[in-house]
């Protein structure tokens, strides 16, 4: 298992940061090489299923997840349930005043071939901060 704990300051209120983070269909706008779709449930409640494909073209891997905690606008936890990607993840939005927040991204994850993914997630979170700052639902 690999442990990842990353934080990024966001120049947006916590509610906006939460809405941007959980807009699954638009996650590909900021997450490196990834598209996400809701595969079961409504995508905004415990038990909902998500599928993320990370890669280029047809070369990549699929990460299936189940939402295990849904506490808007603060916390979402997932269990990675696929054959290749296993473990847990948690996304927490911390208010930092009326117009700022912080996103805390934590994962305990086993990846195929022990892929190093921290640099890609860190780059994506910097893109997320810009995405959330301009986010409109």
From TrEMBL:
Q: Which residues form a coiled coil?
A: none
Which Pfam family would be a valid example here? Polyketide_cyc2
Q: Return the SUPFAM superfamilies for the record.
A: Bet v1-like (SSF55961)
Q: Record's InterPro entries?
A: Polyketide_cyclase/dehydratase, START-like_dom_sf
Q: Which domain of life is it from?
A: Bacteria
- Which CDD domains is this protein grouped with? SRPBCC (cd07812)
Task: Specify the protein name.
Answer: Polyketide cyclase/dehydrase/lipid transport protein
């Amino acid at each position: 298992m690999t442990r990842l704990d990353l934080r990024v300051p966001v120049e947006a209120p916590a509610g906006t940061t939460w809405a941007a983070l959980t807009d699954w269909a638009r996650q590909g706008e900021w997450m490196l090489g990834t598209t996400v779709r809701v595969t079961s449930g409504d995508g905004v409640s415990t038990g909902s299923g998500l599928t993320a494909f990370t890669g280029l073209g047809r070369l990549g891997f699929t990460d299936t997840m189940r939402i295990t905690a849904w506490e808007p606008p603060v916390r979402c936890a997932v269990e990675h349930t696929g054959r290749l990607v296993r473990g847990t993840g948690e996304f927490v939005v911390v208010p930092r005043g009326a117009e700022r927040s912080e996103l805390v991204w934590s994962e305990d994850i086993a990846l195929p071939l022990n892929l190093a993914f921290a640099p890609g997630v860190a780059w994506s979170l910097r893109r997320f901060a810009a995405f959330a700052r301009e986010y409109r639902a």
